[in-house]
Every structure is written in C-alpha cells, then in structure tokens.
Amino acid sequence: MLRRSLVMLWLAGMALAEPMHKKVAMVLKVEGKTSALTGQMWSAGDRIDLPADSKVTVLLLNKGERVELSGAGRVEVSNSGLTLEGGSQKKLSTTQMKLALTGENHRQIGGMTLRAQKPQPPKYNLALDRVEVSEGGVRVSRPAGSGAPPRLQFLYLDPEEMPSLTADFEALTRSKAPDKSVFTTQVEGRKEGTRWVWQAPWPLEEPPKSYSLRIFPVASGPMQLWTRLYHPGPAEKKELAAARDQVQQWSQREPGSVEPWVYLANLLEEKGRLEESLGALNSALALRPKDQGLLEMKARLLLDLGRYLQAYQVKPKP
Q1: Through-space distance between the first and last CA atoms of the chain, rounded to whole angstroms
Q2: What is the pTM of this model?
Q3: Residue 11 has pLDDT above 80, yes or no
Q4: How confident is the model at residue 236, as a pLDDT?
C-alpha cells in the first residue's frame, strides 16, 4: 500500500512538473476573418474559434508538420497537439522545420498585442538605429554626425520588461543609467563609411543567456538604445545556421509563400536576432503587405529595437 502511494505521489509530481503552457504550434498563414494572426504562437490550453470561410495554416513545432485548419469550428490546443471540433483539417507537405522554444522571448511568446489603447505618437526614435549580434559581441551604429563619435557606455542587465507604445517615452529617454548591471564597458566609436560604429563584447557568463542592453553617452546625455539580447549557446548557433539554409530551400520550392519567412522571423526573434528577424519579416511583407499579423510582428520588433516612431507608424488594425 505504501509503495503504491509513493508511486501515485511520484506520478502526481511528474504531472505538476509538466509545462502548463507549452508552445505547440506557430501560425504560418491566415485567410479570412478569425482571431488567429500570422506569426502567433498557440499554447496548451488555448482555444481558437474559426468562423466559416476562414483558413489557418500552422506548423506543429516539435514535429515539423504543417496542418491546414478550416472553419467553422474550434481548435483546442493541448501538449499533445491540436483537436478540431467542427470544420476540417488536412496535412500539408512536411517542412521538417522544428522549433524548440526557450521562452526567452516573452513578448512574442506571450502573444503581446500593441494596439490595446490609442497612444500619442512618440516624437523620436532612440539614436542607434542598427543592432547586430555576432559571436564576438554586439555591434551598434547610427548615421555619422559632425566631429568625432562619442564614447558610449554599454550596460548589460538581467532581462527587463521592455517599453510599450503607451509608455512615457519622454521620461524613458531621460532615464539615468541603472545602478547595477551584469556587466558594463565603455566603447570608443569609429567611423565606417557614412556611419558611426561601436563594438562591445559579450559578458563573460556562459551562454545561453538573455540580457537587456542599455547604452548611454559616457559624458552625459539621453539614452541611446534600450533593447533585448540573447547570447546563444553552440547548439543554438548550429540550429540557426541550419534553419537559414532550410528556409532558403523552402522559399525556392514555394516562392510565393510567406511561411518560410514567418518561421525564420520567429526563430530569429526568439534567439535575439531582432535586426535579422526584421529582414526576414520584410521578405514576408513583400508578399503579403496588408497581413495584420505580420504588421503586428513588425511593430513589436521596431519597438524592441528602440525605433518607437516607426513602430507607431506601422499601425496594425486591432
């Protein structure tokens, strides 16, 4: 009896340890009127209504399988997959594109919507308009001004909640450098062509690791950048390289499809490659320029890159 009780307790503990909101599917394409958006992640416990004449293509994340769901019906999402009540579903050709999510990307993984309110447009963007991540560290740049580029202070912090379009951006840029950081360094700028460039190393912590990065002038002045970063480990670097090659092949097989670019944009965003994610997303928007899910993703990426006015101007509809 005691042994049986211990086994039951062990099984209960296993059940409690299971992720309650496991990411199960990525929405690759949406047709018709439905609450689903291109690029959205579906988690265990989600319920999605599909009205008549709606059609949603999803990628099952851990299987690399594509499924087309058509209304009218309701999709129930569980850890084991999708269940459709009403409507119809069919499997499409497999992509073999799998995605293991770490949960580091809290905005995208949480399905954040930017237009819950009607904010006033920001009057500016943060100064640094290009953020490039490499094995050696972080490279930021901006169009060159007069004179010599200023010396900048890079502050790597534990992940912070990023600003929203309803934030007080005036106060945001006047904010002082945080008292504590994981790592801080001062970097001299240099001119490359028509741009000023600064290159900072990663902190010495072992990857994978997420950070918020804030950059201020060493002398004085407003914040130059506030963004989020992810320093991937060796396995993730291989995953990214393989994904880029596979997406290139996928896009050649299906040249009119946004799906490979949506997949790549999500993966790059999850791995902190925001600038590269924006490039993949622009490839998708070239094919479907009015897709509300893609516009929502673009606004979110611009926001996290400090380009507040551009994010506001994307204006996805609610």
Answers
A1: 57
A2: 0.87
A3: no
A4: 87
